[in-house]
Amino acid sequence: MEKNKKAGPLIKERIYKLDRTDRAILNEIQSHFPIKARPYREIGERLGLPEKEIIFRVDRMTKGGIIRRIGANFNSRKLGFISTLCAARVPTEKIHDFIEAVNQYSGVTHNYEREGDYNIWFTFIAESQKMIEFSLKEIKHRTGVEDLINLPAVNIFKIQVDFEV
């Protein structure tokens, strides 16, 4: 089962068979998505395919659960934001409500369940550390989950991650 912020804690896995063309599209869009009025036409030109074919395949892979999101990644620090990793010890019976409460905050970018005492982890981005601390206190109050820790980064090591498919 896959955990997904938007759809709730669990979604059924989808089985999807990728062909060579799907793989080529995925390899192309990971880090080379064109910022153009018609990006799929440009991707099609690069791969020797019609724009409609690219759109059809991207739509199919999105509906099939292969593509979760297409969007930009920004360096939040350079834009003046602060980010942190948070971990919470959430009793099993409160997990659903806790996740729902956390996901209501626009600054939450990732939210996932892990095994172990601290079983819910999420990243939070805000304009200040003060805003993050206020929001975490609010989450504790709204959910009744007091064991919530804030783990701000000491050093940041960014790497480019592309997955050859």
Give a written overview of the molecule.
- The protein has 165 residues and is an alpha+beta fold.
- The chain is built from five helices and six strands, in the order ββαααβαββαβ.
- The protein is elongated, with a radius of gyration of 19 Å.
**Overall SS class:** alpha+beta
What about the largest sheet?
4 strands, antiparallel
- For this structure, the CATH topology of the largest domain is Alpha-Beta Plaits
Q: What fraction of the residues are assigned to beta strands by DSSP?
A: 15-25%
Average residue-wise pLDDT: 87
What's the alpha carbon Rg, rounded to whole Å?
19 Å
β-strand number: 6
Number of helical regions = 5
Q: Topology, pairings included?
A:
Blueprint lengths: L1 E3 L3 E4 L8 H12 L7 H9 L3 H13 L18 E7 L6 H9 L4 E6 L6 E7 L2 H15 L4 E5 L13
